[in-house]
Amino acid sequence: TKQQICTAYREQAIFIALCLERYGPQSPAAIRARGGSLKTQTILNRNVYGWFHPLKRGLYELRPQVAEHIR
Fold first, then answer.
1. Contact (Cβ atoms closer than 8 angstroms) between residue 58 and residue 31
2. Would you state the pLDDT for residue 39?
3. CA distances for 32 relative to 3, 14, 38, 41, 55, angstroms
4. Reported pTM
């Protein structure tokens, strides 16, 4: 069977995206307080999937077109 693999990195990025979708723009510390990993800041900075947008220093939001990738 050809089942798509979800890496731990992608799972963490999805968690961050869901937090931003549900609670709006947040800091990495706020996301970690909600259960995010210690790598939250790195994931937001690297933005491998292009899902996150920095509003200002230490505050991130979710890009509007991301909902289809995290469901």
1. no
2. 96
3. 30, 13, 7, 9, 18
4. 0.88
How many H helices and E strands in the chain? 4, 2
- Per-residue pLDDT tens over the stretch 16-69: 999 999 999 999 999 999 999 999 999 999 999 999 999 999 999 999 888 777
Q: Output DSSP code: residue 47.
A: -
CA 64 – CA 60 distance, rounded (Å): 13
- Judge contact between 47 and 34, C-beta under 8 A: no
Q: How far is CA 57 from CA 26, 35, 53, 60, 70, in A?
A: 11, 21, 11, 8, 25
